[in-house]
Amino acid sequence: MVKKQRAFLKWAGGKYSLTEKINTLLPSGKRLIEPFVGAGSVFLNSDFEHYLLNDINKDLINLYQAIQQDPVNFIDDAKRFFVSENNIPEAYYHLRSEFNATIDKHYRSLLFLYMNRHGYNGLCRYNKSGGYNVPFGKYKKPYFPQAELEFFAEKAKKAIFICESYRQTFARANDGDVIYCDPPYVPLSKTASFTSYAGNGFGLDEQADLANAAEEVTSEKKVSVLISNHDTIWTRKIYQGAKTRKSIKVSRTISQKGTARKKVAELMVLYK
C-alpha cells in the first residue's frame, strides 16, 4: 500500500482525507492541471507524468517555486525560524510586519512557511490593503515539516507552478489533460460567508463561471474536468451539465474546538 503524503502546509479545505476518493474519480491522463492547487494534497497523492499547478495566491506560488528551485538551501534557511525564541507573540508580529514590508521573494517564502505553522489555525488571510493579518497561534512547539518539504521538492520536479486566474489556466489545457478544481466552497447557509477568500473575490458569479469554463473546455477539447464543492441545491443546479455527479459525506470542524465535528455532504462532478 502506498503511503499517503501530507502537505507541508496547514490549509483550510485541504483534501488530504479525500485523496483516495478523488483518485478513483480522476480520469487517466499524462498531465494533471489544478487551477486551485492550495496545499497540494491531490498533487502529492496522485500519479501523473506532469503537473500544471496554479493558485491566485502569489505568496503560495512563490513559496512552491522557491522550494522547487533550491530545496536544500530553502529547508536549511526555513528551519532557523522554528526556534523557541520565535514562538512568542512579539517575535511573530515582528516577523509578520517584516513579511508585509519586504519584496524579497526568498525571505517572503521563508516567512510564509513560518507564519503558516505559527499563526492561528493554519489560516491564510489578508486585509484589504493586501497585508497578511493572521494572529499568533499559541502552539506549544510548532512542527517543522522537513520530511514533507523534501517529498514535495522531489515531486515538484514533475510540476510547473503558475499564478494567474482560473480562466487563464483553463486556456492552457490540451487534448488528453485532466483538470481538477477545488475552488473556495459555496456557503452551506445564507449566514455563512466567503470571509477567508474575500481578497480573491470568488463569489457566486465565479462559481457559476467555473462550471461554464468546465463545460466549454470539455466541448472544445479532449479534456476531463473534476470539480469538488459543497453539495447544495444551488451547486447541483450550476453543475447540471456534468456527465456524472457523486455525493459523499465528509467530517468537518464546525467550531473552534477540533472535537466539534459533523458530517457534511460534498459533491464531486465530472465533465468529459
Quick structural gist:
The chain is α/β, with parallel strands linked by helices. It is built from 10 helices and 7 strands.
Helix coverage percent = 25-40%
CATH fold call of the largest domain: Rossmann fold
Output the strand order for the largest sheet.
3-2-1-4-5-7-6
- Overall geometry: globular
What is the CATH class of the largest domain? Alpha Beta
* Unreliable stretches: 193-199
CATH architecture of the largest domain: 3-Layer(aba) Sandwich
- How much β-strand is present in the residues? 15-25%
Number of strands: 7
End-to-end Cα distance, whole Å, is 30 Å
CATH superfamily of the largest domain: Vaccinia Virus protein VP39
The helix tally amounts to 10
Series of H and E elements: HEHEHHHHHEHEHEHEE
Major sheet: size, sense and barrel closure?
A: 7 strands, mixed
General description of the model:
This protein has 272 residues and is α/β, with parallel strands linked by helices. It has two domains: 16-56 and 164-271, Vaccinia Virus protein VP39 (Rossmann fold), CATH 3.40.50; 66-147, Adenine-specific Methyltransferase, domain 2 (Orthogonal Bundle), CATH 1.10.1020.10. Helices cover 36% and strands 17% of the residues. It is built from ten helices and seven strands. A hairpin with a 7-residue loop joins strand 6 and strand 7 (261-271). It is globular and about 55 Å long. Residues 193-199 have low confidence and may be disordered.
